[in-house]
Amino acid sequence: MAGSIVTTAFQVVGPMPAASMVGPNARVRGALGAVATVADLVALPDGGTGTWTPVVGRVTVSGVGIVTRSAIGTATHPGTSPTPMNVSAGDPRLEGQ
Length: 97
Known about the structure:
- This protein has one domain (3-92).
- It has no helices and 10 strands.
- The protein has strands at 3-5, 12-13, 20-22, 41-43, 49-53, 60-61, 64-65, 72-76, 83-87, 91-96.
- The protein has a 6-stranded antiparallel sheet with strand order 2-9-8-5-4-3, with no helix packed on it. Strands 1-10 form a two-stranded antiparallel ribbon.
- A hairpin with a 6-residue loop joins strand 8 and strand 9.
- The protein is globular, with a radius of gyration of 12 Å.
């Protein structure tokens, strides 16, 4: 499944909006920021972190899959069980499959 591509942390929810994303991609950018890849680490405001499960295989950045609207992941929070992490929105000007 395809969808708009994630470029900023506020497009990620797990279950609260992400505070930041750190990853290896600094070269491929959209209007809002660098294209997110499954190698990105998501930081949550409660001190938790999130990781992505590869979903998109047709579009890559430096050989690593990108994160689109259909992406899924796991958010780990201090002192609680892991929760699902998903994308609330992507950059409407960028699409991937």
